[in-house]
Amino acid sequence: MKLAAIVLAAGSGSRFGGAKHDVLLAGRPAWRWSTDLFDEMGIPVILVGPLPGGVGGGERRRDSVAAGLDAVPPITTHVLVHDAARPLISRPLVERIVGALEQGAAAVIPAVPVTDTVKRVVEGVVVETIDRTELVSVQTPQGFAIALLRRVHEQTDDDVTDDAALVEAAGIPVKVVAGDPENRKITYRADHYIAEATVRLRGETDG
Description:
Blueprint: E1 3-8, E2 24-25, E3 28-29, H1 30-40, E4 45-48, H2 61-71, E5 78-83, H3 91-102, E6 107-113, E7 118-122, E8 125-130, E9 136-138, E10 142-145, H4 146-155, H5 164-169, E11 175-178, H6 189-202
Parallel strand pairs: 1-4, 1-5, 6-11
Antiparallel strand pairs: 2-3, 5-10, 6-9, 6-10, 7-8
């Protein structure tokens, strides 16, 4: 298996109020945390976005993934797709995803159980409380056989929030492995504060 990682850092961060992949955690930009981990694990990184060494992204997330796919080394057989706005991924999490790929899964996602009560609301009124027993929150990195990911990208131009949705739409099983509650996505300012607190609790510093 020849693995590469596509790290997406092309988003505008409209809800955050700026480029969230650029915020500092212990002196390092958020995007560097995941790229440094992949480097330490010997996984080649394709950075997508207006950053040093990055390739140009697209208007939509899936367009940025496609740009990353075009830039991976030709020998690549499997790829990890990761959001730079999730800086606190861990080696054990990556190893769980890679392990599932090595065991033959064509698509793998990490997920954590939904812990909040979930309700469906229409025009400001609750119409249903949803059973959360089988619900999960999905994270990145997500792992794929690269031939499969390229094929599902070619089959539709639908906009999606993650690549696993394209695989699901093609009727191909997606393997789920345990995610990491600390692998939060920085979407709002409060998420940045939580990430900073997590870094301090871990005792991690710059370098």
